[in-house]
Amino acid sequence: MIRSRFLSNADRRELLACVKRQREDHGVARRANALLLLDEGKSCVAVARVLYLDDDTVRGWHKQYVAEGWESVAYDGWKGGQSRMSAAQEAALCAWLEGRFCRSTVEIRAHVQATFGLRYSHSGCVKLLARLGFEYRKPKALPRGTDVAKQVEFIGLYEDLLTALPADEAVYFADAVQLLAKSRPETPKNGIHVIWGNAASHKRSGVRAFLARKICRIHLIQLPPYCPHLNPALRHVNMPCRAAIARLWAVMHRHVTHNRCYPTPTQFTAAILRFFRETVPKNWRDFRSQVTDNFRIISNQNFRVLE
């Protein structure tokens, strides 16, 4: 008979928190639940009946807790069992997978069942693929209308524009009209070249009316169709960049948010703004190699396309 109240107050609080945490591993939470019920005076048989376990399992958890503590009970050293497929079957499956693309595990599972007489679930098949060195990912869609010639033409136009750009003009990459409005207080004295995509919102009557004004100094350059990869949404001017949107965000996260915890949202916001307003301008020589406009031409010939 296991005596009740064998848990210390600290251990009991920890086990209660473990049981109530929704993201806790199911097996660990069941062990904590069993120990709590034993601590309340219930027998191993009663606890096993409630949790649908064997009473010897509950008794073993209690013995392990008394001898080694909760950390030992919470650790699950199970590493899986022996593969259901032989080495020859695994080699044959690898050879079959190397010769084709499979859209889902359904095709793989059907082949394994028809060839080797073994049935796998979806998760079991994913684990089998990982153990054999394959990676199961959903295929990524590529735009069908991407034109290589138009991409080359745009990159040439962009490079010529930067080469001949006067000191009092600037080039912007944008993805919304709001970026233009935010940029107006800092715009240069003469022309503003704005490069953006072909979204429907970029062609609305309000945008056309704004650009048709006599005092408007904005010159629009449309990206080639289906080429979002040519828009880093990054402003290029003759001074350190202060308002990057896309690629500079990755640099910001590495220096501000990764492995850091801010006590309040105000401190979190202040750290981000300080990085963009102070750190980037002061250290632009170090950052500019990480925030580039090195464009890459995408062609369907560089990919294996699923029909």
Element-by-element helix/strand order: HHHHHHHHHEHEHEHHH
Spatial strand order of the main sheet? 1-2-3
Described by strand count, sense and barrel closure, the largest sheet is:
3 strands, parallel
Low-confidence regions = 177-185, 234-245
Q: Quick one: how many beta strands?
A: 3
Helix content: 40-55%
Q: Radius of gyration, Cα only, in angstroms?
A: 31 Å
The percentage of residues in β strands lies in under 5%
Beginning-to-end CA distance, first to last residue: 67 Å
Tally of distinct domains: 3
Question: So what's the overall shape?
Answer: flat
Number of H/I helices? 14
Structural class assignment: mainly alpha
How confident overall, as mean pLDDT? Answer: 78
Question: How would you describe what is shown here?
Answer:
There is one protein chain. It contains 14 helices and 3 strands. With 307 residues, the chain is mostly helical. The protein has 3 domains: 9-74; 87-131; 148-287, no CATH class. It has a 3-stranded parallel beta sheet with strand order 1-2-3, with no helix packed on it. Helix 10 (177-183) links the parallel strand 1 (170-173) and strand 2. The longest helix is centred in the C-terminal third of the chain and has 18 residues, at 265-282. Mean pLDDT is 78; it is low at 177-185 and 234-245.
Summarize the structure.
Helix content is 49%, strand content 5%.
Spell out the blueprint of helices and strands.
Blueprint: H1 9-20, H2 26-39, H3 44-51, H4 55-68, H5 70-74, H6 87-98, H7 105-116, H8 122-131, H9 148-163, E1 170-173, H10 177-183, E2 192-196, H11 205-211, E3 218-222, H12 247-257, H13 265-282, H14 284-287
Parallel strand pairs: 1-2, 2-3
Helix pairs in contact: 1-2, 2-3, 3-4, 12-13
